[in-house]
Amino acid sequence: MGNNYEKNFSKKQRKILVLGIEKSGKTCFVQCVNGKELNENNYVETNDLDIIDVKKDKFWLQFYDFAGCERKRIFWRHHYIGAQGIVFVVDGSSMESFQDSLDALQQLLKERNLIKVPICVFINKSDIKVEGEIKNKVEDLLKDASIPGENHRIVNNIQGSNKLKQGHQQVIEWLAKTMVEI
Predict the structure, then answer these.
(1) Is 140 annotated as a binding residue?
(2) Would the annotation count 178 as a binding residue?
(3) Whole-angstrom Cα distance, residue 169 to residue 85?
(4) Lowest-confidence pick of 12-16, 49-53, 132-136
(5) Can you tell me where the transmembrane regions are (predicted)?
(6) Is 21 labelled as part of a ligand binding site?
(7) Which residues sit opposite 13 in a β-bridge?
(8) What gap in Å lies between CA 155 and CA 59, rounded to an integer?
(9) Strand residue runs (E) in 22-112
(10) For the whole model, what pTM was predicted?
C-alpha cells in the first residue's frame, strides 16, 4: 500500500501544524508568515481546519491551521501523521486562558506519534505585555519535555506579536533547522 504522505509531500514541502486554544492568534500567525495584512475588524474564527501554502526560501510550507475550541481539539490527532513541525500558539497576555493552553500543550507533549516532531511555542501578544508567569511555566514545561531519554522532544519557545509582526521569522528559522523529512 505504501505511505501516502510520500506521494503527497515532496522533499521541498513541509507540513506544519498550527495548534492552540481559541483566540490565541493561530490564524493571524499564519497570515503574518504569509505576508498578509491583519484586519482586526474583520476577524473570523477558524471553524475546523484551514490549509495554507506559503513559499519560504526554497520550501513550500503547508500550514494546517486548526480550530482551537475544546470540542474541535480531538480532531487534531487525525493530522499528526506526516507532520514535520508544530507551532503551538499561546496568548501571552491572558492568565485566564493560560491554564487551558497549558493543559492542551501538556496533552500534545504526551502524544507518542509526535515524539520526533519539533514543537515551537509561540507566546503571542508581547506587544501588550507577556505575563512573566506564563513565560516561566511554558519554559518549565518544555524543559521537562526536552530531557534526553525515550520521550525526548525537540522544543523551543519564542515570544512575539502578530499585531507587530514580530517573532514569526524566528519561529520559521528554528523549525527549518529542526524539521525532519518524511
Answers:
(1) no
(2) no
(3) 15
(4) 132-136
(5) none
(6) yes
(7) 60
(8) 21
(9) 49-56, 59-66, 85-91
(10) 0.86
CA atoms within 13 A on the CB side of 2: 5
| 68 known member of a binding site | yes
Burial class (CB in 10 A: 0-12, 13-18, 19+), 176: middle
- Name the grid cell of 101: 493552553
Q: Which three cell numbers stand for residue 143?
A: 524543559
Instruction: Give the cell for residue 30.
Output: 499564519
**Burial group, residue 76, by CB count within 10 angstroms (0-12, 13-18, 19+):** buried
Q: Over 60: is that where the pLDDT of 1 sits? A: no
181 is in an annotated binding site: no
Dihedral sign (CA 98, 100, 104, 107): positive
For the chain, the domains span: 4-178
Q: Residue 143 — pLDDT band, cuts 50, 70, 90?
A: confident
> CATH second-level architecture of 4-178?
3-Layer(aba) Sandwich (3.40)
**Going by C-beta distance under 8 Å and a sequence separation of 6 or more, which residues neighbour residue 95?**
131, 133, 134
Alpha-carbon distance of 84 to 104, in angstroms, equals: 19
Annotated ligand binding at 100? The verdict is no
